[in-house]
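Batch manifest, entry 17 of 40.
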Amino acid sequence: MIYEVRTYAIKPKSQGEVEKRIGEAYEYRKKLSPLAAIFHTEIGPLNQIIPIWPYNDMAERARIRAEAAASGNWPPKIGEFVLNMRTEIFIPIPNSPEIKPGKMGPYFEMRTYTYAPGEFPKVLKIWERALPERVKLSPLVGIWNAECGSVNRFTHIWAYPSLDARNQTREKAQAMGIWPPSALAKKEGLPEPVLVAQENKIVMPAAFSPLQ
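Output type: structure tokens
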């Protein structure tokens, strides 16, 4: 399983029209393969639309994208609103849940960490230790390592019913000493990976997103 995360930076005040056009085109596109989710940013870098597409592998992705383009109904006609876009391919780490349709949010926190080259084995080790207790406090949507695009990036997505719930959950996890993973690594004497950069944004689903 791979996930393609496409991030569109769009013109201010165009979100409604962009989501409308994507939703209309998606009625045809979903016959070939469904979205896992599609979000827009609420807090953080605004005016972003973020569709997430699941595929079995890169070969399936290439085949389906070619079929979609040949149909004439995809991609959606949003070019006049798009300022730039980025595509990344992510691979779930062991024990990452598969994204399935349903209600988990409506607030989702996408956190992306960039690590120094060669640090991923350390990342895996401390996250495998930290996750079992952390997921008892709030649902984990997915946790992935970048395979193509901006590599050495590690994205995890968490679902919350409200922003207050998000704040309370994080405070509780920190008070328990189980989060962030770096705190657990320090407590247990595990080697901590070298962290280069962090990004964070709160996103919400479009009306037609399978994940809500």
